[in-house]
Amino acid sequence: MKTDVLIIGGGPGGATAAMFLIREGIKPIILEQEAFPRFHIGESMTGEAAQVLRRLGFGDEMIRRKHPVKHGVRVFGTTGVNSWYIPVAARDKEWNLSLASTWQVRRSEFDVMMLKAAEARGATVMQGTATKPLLADDGAVRGVTVRWPDGKSENIETEVVLDCSGMATFLANQRVTGPKYVGSYDKQIAFFSHVTGAIRDTGTSGEEARSNTLIFYQNKFHWAWFIPIDEDVVSMGLVTPKATFVETKQSPEEFFRHTIPAINPDLRRRVADMKLIEKVHVIPNYSYQVRRFCGEGFICIGDAHRFIDPIFSFGLSATMREAEFAAPAVRAYLEGKGRDKANPFTGHQLFCEKGIDNLEDMVDMFWEQPFAFALFAHNRYRDELIDAFAGRIYENERQPSAAILAFRKSLKRTRDYEHEDDYSIPIGSRFHPERAALWEPNSPIATTEEWMVARPS
Ligand SMILES: Cc1cc2nc3c(=O)[nH]c(=O)nc-3n(C[C@H](O)[C@H](O)[C@H](O)COP(=O)(O)OP(=O)(O)OC[C@H]3O[C@@H](n4cnc5c(N)ncnc54)[C@H](O)[C@@H]3O)c2cc1C
Predict the structure, then answer these.
(1) Is 373 helix (H, G, I), strand (E, B) or coil?
(2) Ligand 1 center to residue 294 CA distance, Å?
(3) Does domain 188-283 have CATH number 3.30.9.100?
(4) Is residue 166 within 6 Å of ligand 1 at its C-beta?
(5) Where does residue 152 rank: exposed (0-12), middle (13-18), buried (19+ CB within 10 A)?
(6) What is the pTM of this model?
(7) What mean pLDDT do residues 93-108 have?
């Protein structure tokens, strides 16, 4: 089988990439290993993620489907009394800010909507698992071997593979990319479920809106999220250092039930009568960075190359925006541009990496200096943080902003974009190549316990 573009993964990244490619006149194949609908985490969107949806023509459909409207995010401190709020806001062409909104989604339904729309617009969706890349002698990616549900295998030859496989990081695990480094937040575990009976705010818009995202901060790397995903159901999640969980010797569900109310008094009040309607899912090792994630015949998108930390809900935003940015680069490549270069997508790679670096500096500042961060969010860098929280993190969006530059200074961090192998890993980081612990891609990660053994400390 042959196609111009093969997309691995039919999540929001893959479906978005397909729809923007179709606008460029390219009809891709999307290969998805799972039968949809399937449960997935990642339910709260930034303002710019909503803008991608509007650009793709889903604005009215999101309203018709009654997805909860998010007006902002409130972050509660340890006591549950103090909090700060960042509204969703948009920029116009003159760069004026105005209040806006975005959506919370139940991923099982949202992902089906996106994948079906990609198919209806001209993509071919096939259920199967990419098992092996097809490589030319010079290392260029020329396709993949696919295993179909009946167990048979087949090669699909292609000009470009878009790796939208999410945390499965297909091409990185196959060592097609550069190395995959453990990220800064690797020693944490997330537990999450869907609950009914949780107490929400009651407003219809602004700070008190009933569908806003609430974050409850307890301690460094110990926090919970509260994301309403329909009129009754709230996505509840808990993140904690792995050592805290291991010490308790509890099952994930016991730990979830005991620890959520203990995060802070305001959360305790909200979950007193919660009922779990979904099993407690666990994701332990979610922080990593893949080097050289673009090259001859391939681009990795979103989680397929980098995930920092879920605290401020950037995952969907990053993967959908990178998918949109990739489409014209792929068209240019198919038209013959950059074919003589070792990495025809260097510009795209650097552009995306710089964006996520800005995000990383913000998240690091929050964890390292939460009180200073709260003051910045209230006063000094309010507009800049409103931009970053909306997902405006790229250099064509006036980034790095004064806030990001100030965070770098506070973190005693410089960013070097001169050397291809080093850029974007902050100098001084324990993940800089000189000191980096390399992630072992083929470690068995079936259970939390196995993962803990398999991971480098
Ligand atoms: C604890 C936690 C909380 C989060 N909360 C949020 C949040 O509130 N908001 C937010 O925006 N983001 C959040 N995220 C991030 C979000 O889940 C991801 O960024 C988002 O799902 C990425 O979308 P994607 O399409 O790139 O990948 P995915 O949604 O993971 O889709 C990848 C698809 O590829 C398929 N696939 C994988 N390997 C293969 C293969 N070999 N062959 C064929 N198919 C394959 C998979 O089956 C999957 O369907 C969170 C992440 C974590 C860990």
Answers:
(1) helix
(2) 19
(3) yes
(4) yes
(5) exposed
(6) 0.94
(7) 97
Residues forming CATH 3.30.9.100 domain(s) in the chain: 188-283
Q: Find out whether the beta carbon of 286 lies less than 6 Å from any atom of ligand 1.
A: yes
Determine the atom of ligand 1 nearest the C-alpha atom of 15. Answer: 25
pLDDT tens sequence across 132-183? 999 999 999 999 999 999 999 999 999 999 999 999 999 999 999 988 877 7
37 preceded by a cis bond (ω within 30 of 0): yes
Looking at ligand 1, which atom is closest to the CA of residue 129? Answer: 42
Annotate 388-406 with b (16+ C-beta within 10 A) or e (fewer).
bbbbbbbeebebbbebbeb
Q: Is 228 in the pocket of ligand 1 (CB under 6 A)?
A: no
Best substitution site from 31, 148, 303 to test ligand 1's pocket, by max atoms within 8 Å of Cβ?
Answer: 303
Give the Cα separation of 45 and 16 in Å (integer).
14
Range list for CATH 3.50.50.60 in the chain? 2-44+107-183+287-345
Ligand 1 centroid to 9 CA: how many Å?
9
> In this predicted structure, which of 65-69, 286-290, 350-354, 434-438 has the lowest mean pLDDT?
434-438
Query: Measured in angstroms, how far is the CA atom of residue 11 from the centroid of ligand 1?
Result: 7
Fold of the domain built from segment(s) 2-44+107-183+287-345: FAD/NAD(P)-binding domain (3.50.50)
